C-alpha cells in the first residue's frame, strides 16, 4: 500500500520512473499512476505508461516549473528518476518511485556486474567534468556506464583508454527494451559506433 506524506499545507509531488523501455514499469509505479488525478511527463514517458493512465496526461514544457504543478501530481520520468532523471527536482516532502534504468538494462543484457560500476552522465551539459571523472574512475579500476554527449561518446572514450593504456571492452547500448534494441561490442582500437545520439556506453576493464 502506497503512502505519500507531506507537511501541513505543502504540496507533495510523486515522481515515477517508467523504465527505459516498454514493460519496465514496476508494480509500485503502476499503482501510483492508476491512482493519479493528474499526470505529467515527456512524450516518451507518457507513451510508456499510457495503458495505466486513467486521467488526462499533459506534456511537460518547462521542467524548472514542476513545483507549480497541482498537489499530488504524478510526474513520469523515463528510466530511473534518480539517474539523470526528474528525481533531481523532488523536494523533501515529495516521493520518488524507482524505475529500471538504462544502466540496469544494459548490465543485464551484457551480464556486467553493477557492484564495480561508476555511473557518469555527460548528456545535455558541458562534457569536460564528465571526462575528468571518467579518467579518474578508470584509473581507480572502475567500470563505467556513461550517458554520452554528441561530442563525447564511444570514439572519444576509446581514445582516452588508449592514452591511459587500459584494455577494455566497450558496448554501445541503444533503444533498450524496444524492438529496435541494438548492442554493439568493440575495443579501444575498434570502438563500436552508435547509430543514434541517445545511447548508453559501457566500459568494462579487462582484469
What does this structure look like?
This is Cobalt-precorrin-6y C5-methyltransferase. The chain has 207 residues and is an alpha/beta fold. The chain folds into two domains: 14-100, Cobalt-precorrin-4 Transmethylase, domain 1 (3-Layer(aba) Sandwich); 103-205, Methyltransferase, Cobalt-precorrin-4 Transmethylase, Domain 2 (2-Layer Sandwich), CATH 3.30.950.10. It contains five helices and ten strands; from the N terminus they run E-H-E-H-E-E-E-H-E-H-E-H-E-E-E. The protein has helices spanning 27-35, 43-49, 102-110, 128-139, 154-164, and strands at 14-17, 39-41, 57-59, 74-77, 95-97, 117-121, 143-147, 168-174, 182-186, 199-205. The strands form two sheets. A five-stranded parallel beta sheet has the order 3-2-4-1-5, with helices on one face. The protein has a five-stranded mixed beta sheet with strand order 6-7-10-8-9, sandwiched between helices. Strand 6 (117-121), helix 4 and strand 7 (143-147) form a beta-alpha-beta unit. It is elongated. The model is unreliable at 1-9 (pLDDT under 50).
The first-level CATH class name of the largest domain:
Alpha Beta
Task: Using the 3D structure, state the CATH architecture of the largest domain.
Answer: 2-Layer Sandwich
Q: Name the poorly predicted regions.
A: 1-9
Integer tally of domains? 2
Number of strands: 10
Find the structural class using helix and strand composition: alpha/beta
How would you sum up the global shape? elongated
Q: What oligomerization state is this entry in?
A: single chain
Helix content: 10-25%
